């Protein structure tokens, strides 16, 4: 009888160790997934930040080239920004030395 109790105790201990091992493995996999998602989001954020910087640089270049400026203090900034981009696109179409890709970028930035 004592031998059976000892064997049952050892089986439970072994089962508990296996369960703990599986739990640690699941935790490691979960952490690896989170790290992977974090890295992907970080790359995405960097790409989006670069894209925004690129579009801002294009807009700034067009502002300087055309002399058209928008007052950033205006409360309806998006409306003015879109109007500005529309005006710049129309203005830039008249110049042969303005790359069409630049105008296309501006059109895309405005979203029309």
UniProtKB/TrEMBL annotation:
InterPro entries: bZIP, bZIP_plant_GBF1, bZIP_sf. Residues 6-52 form the BZIP domain. The keyword Transmembrane helix does not apply. GO terms for cellular component: nucleus. Residues 1-26 are annotated as: Disordered. Keywords: DNA-binding, Nucleus, Transcription, Transcription regulation. It comes from the Eukaryota. It holds the Pfam family bZIP_1. Residues 1-10 have a biased composition (Basic and acidic residues). It is found in: Nucleus. This is BZIP domain-containing protein. Gene3D superfamilies: 1.20.5.170. The lineage of its organism: Eukaryota, Viridiplantae, Streptophyta, Embryophyta, Tracheophyta. One of its GO terms (molecular function) is DNA-binding transcription factor activity. The gene is LOC110732923. Its main location: nucleus.
């Amino acid at each position: 009888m004592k031998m059976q109790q000892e064997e049952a105790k050892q089986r439970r201990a072994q089962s508990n160790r296996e369960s703990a091992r599986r739990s640690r493995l699941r935790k490691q996999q979960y952490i690896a997934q989170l790290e992977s998602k974090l890295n992907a989001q970080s790359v995405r954020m960097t790409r989006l930040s670069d894209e925004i910087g690129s579009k801002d640089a294009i807009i700034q270049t067009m502002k300087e080239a055309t002399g058209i400026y928008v007052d950033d203090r205006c409360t309806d900034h998006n409306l003015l920004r879109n109007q500005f981009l529309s005006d710049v696109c129309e203005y830039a179409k008249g110049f042969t030395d303005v790359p069409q890709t630049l105008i296309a970028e501006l059109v895309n930035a405005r979203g029309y």
